[in-house]
Design goal:
Elements lengths: L2 H15 L11 E5 L3 E5 L14 E5 H10 L19 H6 L4 E5 L2 H7 L4 H8 L5 E4 L6 H8 L8 E4 L3 E6 L2 H15 L12 H8 L4 E2 L15 H5 L6 H7 L4 E3 L13 E4 L3 E5 L4 H14 L13 H8 L2 H11 L2
Parallel strand pairs: 5-6, 9-10
Antiparallel strand pairs: 1-2, 1-4, 2-3, 4-7, 6-7, 8-11, 10-11
The chain binds zinc ion.
Length: about 325
Amino acid sequence: MQSQLLHKLAQLSARYGADPLLTQGAGGNTSIKDSKALIIKASGKRLSQALNEDIFVEMDQQRLLSAIGRGEEIDFNANLKGPLRGSIETPLHAVIPQTVVVHLHSVRTLAHAIRVNARQALEERLAGLPWALVPYAKPGWPLTWELQKTLAQSPSVWVLQNHGLIVAADSCEGAEVLLDEVERRLERSPTNESSSPSSALQSWVASHPEYRLPRENHAHTLAFCGETLDRLVQGVLCPDQAVFLGREVEVVNDLAELPASPTAVATVVRQHGVLLKASASQGSDDLVTCLGLLASRVEPSDKFSYLSEPQIEELLDWDAEKHRQALDRTR
Ligand SMILES: [Zn+2]
């Protein structure tokens, strides 16, 4: 495959990976393909590092396509020699016919894709674009089968319910133009962005070593968004939330209610800010940032859909995810 195309993909990946509105941590992935090879971001690698390290791995596109043709869920990493493994979403990229595929956990998209009436909201905003809505399915093969059902309509934009966005084109430039257009159409005017933790919370955490503040201030928006907080944390909104924050985000009404030892990875203290467990990984920081950015892009009348208990269970008890979390802890 042309090295020039791969370099363009790396440039695009680094740019999107550095934007918390488009991707969090090791989430999201990009690829290019020809009839023989699929070059995709490796599992656990960060798009933001695309220009600094080797984050891409070459997969056998012919083998993937013949497995997809047979409806068989193969181990697509089986023949790899080096240390890198293909992203969990490798078959999802393989099934899409376009050359360049960009999959992001876009906050602007999630603000609609977590809504009970996502289709109705998106129909207005994406009118005229070749787009499809893909019902929630576990990332990897189950999501691939769901997306495959939409291919008869020849889409180049997919909104994945409770998950994110895919755009595809035959060039990097084409994918960039499409992504810009979708993001522009899906943006809702953000309110209340980037709050700071209260000074009381800052002094409290200084004497409680089992907790720490998140690395980004966006997360604290959660503490200042009123009843939106209750609806956002009522359940798990997307797969990476389950993986990096667990089943529950704790909410307390005041500093005095904070337990000496954290009971959840993330705790929100209303009107003060957000705390993480001291041992929380970078992925947890990225996910509270995502929830904070989401908090300023949802509206009081929105009704959200949450992952069901079996859907959460299958994410937490999954070897591929355990591999990704282990890589995250080494940061
Ligand atoms: Zn994803």
